[in-house]
Amino acid sequence: MKEPDNDLMVEVKNLKMYFPITRGLLKRKVADVKAVDDISFYIKKHETLGLVGESGCGKTTTGRCILRLYQPTSGNIIFAGKDISNMREGKLKPLRSNMGAIFQDPFGSLNPRQIAGSIVGDPLKVHDMATGSELDDRVAELFQMVGLDPTMKDRVPHEFSGGQRQRIGVARALACRPSLVICDEPISALDVSIQAQIINLLEELQEKMGLTYLFIAHDLAVVQHISERVAVMYLGRIVEITTSEELYENPLHPYTKALFSAIPIPNPKIEKTRTHIVLKGEVPSPVNPPTGCHFHPRCHMAVEECSRERPPLRDIGGGHLVACIRV
What we know:
327 residues, Rossmann fold, globular
């Protein structure tokens, strides 16, 4: 799992993010929501790492910890060679211009009372990177970069379509020329025809600007298309990491296999011959997750040992990491 440090953009080590549950007037802590529960991974420079899993498995929380929108409970986040996991805001601010974020809801993430040009130009003002005519020129350049007419910069968000609003979100994320962009389900709220356009735009910008992406999604087909490597999350833990091709040709973790079996194939003859894995029960609560392997209560391959031991994320060859004692 260890790679040369100068080749890495982000390295996450034993990251935990627990949210306390409090009760009473004195706000006494009674439990924790274990949103992210001891995960480790890395992202190489100019690479796209896909992060997939069900809703509520901790994908967005992981992205927000890397951006330091959340202060991690424990663990280390090394960004561009610097440990930012406990860095103070004063030291963190210069690094923030090197990070960008594209959010899921292209309307909710934009200020409805602010014009588009001001939204895109805000990061440049915050980091003192441009003012006056230079700011106007840079905003116009960003609009053109994402396929929007610069004359639209005086419109407010409700005057744009969903795809256009997400392009504004992409322009804002790239305003300060970041090296890392966290894409938090950037296409899930868009029409299918528009999704392809945004994916193609992200790929073009990555090639042009040398960007590194953490691409969070629950659509496995999209992740396969855009990602070099994919990490699969379940209930706050990473259960499998490998290259995109290897994951789709040879999924090894029972949860990954179940995800793939749920994807319909547009060929009735092949679809009839497939075996569908139907998972038992519901996803357990992150407040009180199962002991051992979190997936064992729903797993068709589980044995008694699965409920006692937490399986380590181990390399079974060729950089294919799996957290399952049955593999």
